[in-house]
Design brief:
Organism: Paenibacillus selenitireducens
Number of domains: 2
InterPro entries: RNA_pol_sigma-70-like, RNA_pol_sigma-70_dom, RNA_pol_sigma70_r2, RNA_pol_sigma70_r4_t2, RNA_pol_sigma_r2, RNA_pol_sigma_r3/r4-like, WH-like_DNA-bd_sf
GO molecular function: DNA binding; sigma factor activity
Largest sheet: none
CATH topology of the largest domain: Rna Polymerase Sigma Factor, Chain: A
Number of strands: 0
Distance between the termini: 50 Å
Radius of gyration: 17 Å
Order of helices and strands: HHHHHHHHH
Family: Belongs to the sigma-70 factor family. ECF subfamily.
Number of helices: 9
Keywords: Sigma factor, Transcription, Transcription regulation
CATH architecture of the largest domain: Orthogonal Bundle
Length: 176
């Protein structure tokens, strides 16, 4: 049975098809949220919230985007809502602690950890999210604007300014 058939069955109320869909997308969603949050514990919590929201809203999935994109949209909005609610922008010490957790987690999975990821981890989430969605996951500006529920011009501006900031930080002499 292919993914589209499982989606259709899940929409009709087949819990086993829905469970299989969620199981198939769990790792993808977890890796995305680790990159977004820079905190494996928080990423795990958001994956669980995303899965619950998917279970609640599966009947509203209309198939206009890939199922994985729909999940990323849910996860992204949950993360943004959480950040807005708490009005928390992690400061240097919290980022360092989260970075150590992520580095440990990534080493456990034997994944490469680059200077670019270190630089991304120091950025505000509002800048980091569109850069990751555009340049790591390959989404179009329009898709990112929809996922983040912000104007497309804001997406372009955040990506441009964020990349300028990354270039400046990653250049040996500190110039862009």
């Amino acid at each position: 049975m292919d993914e589209q058939q499982r989606i259709e069955q899940a929409i009709r109320g087949d819990n086993q098809a829905l469970a299989q869909l969620l199981h198939e997308h769990y790792t993808f969603l977890m890796k995305y949220l680790i990159k977004v949050t820079m905190n494996p514990t928080l990423a795990e919590d958001l994956v669980q919230e995303t899965m619950l929201k998917c279970i609640e809203k599966i009947s509203s999935y209309n198939g206009t985007s890939k199922f994985s994109s729909w999940l990323i949209t849910i996860a992204t909005r949950l993360y943004i809502d959480m950040m807005r609610r708490k009005k928390v922008e992690q400061r240097w010490q919290e980022q360092e602690q989260a970075l150590r957790k992520v580095q440990w987690h990534m080493q456990q999975q034997q994944e490469a950890w680059t200077d670019a990821i270190d630089a991304l981890s120091k950025m505000r989430y509002e800048i980091r999210l569109p850069i990751l969605l555009k340049h790591y996951y390959g989404y179009a500006y329009e898709d990112i604007a929809e996922m983040m529920d912000i104007p497309i011009g804001t997406v372009k501006s955040r990506i441009y300014n964020g990349l300028q900031q990354l270039r400046k930080e990653l250049m040996p002499d500190g110039t862009a």
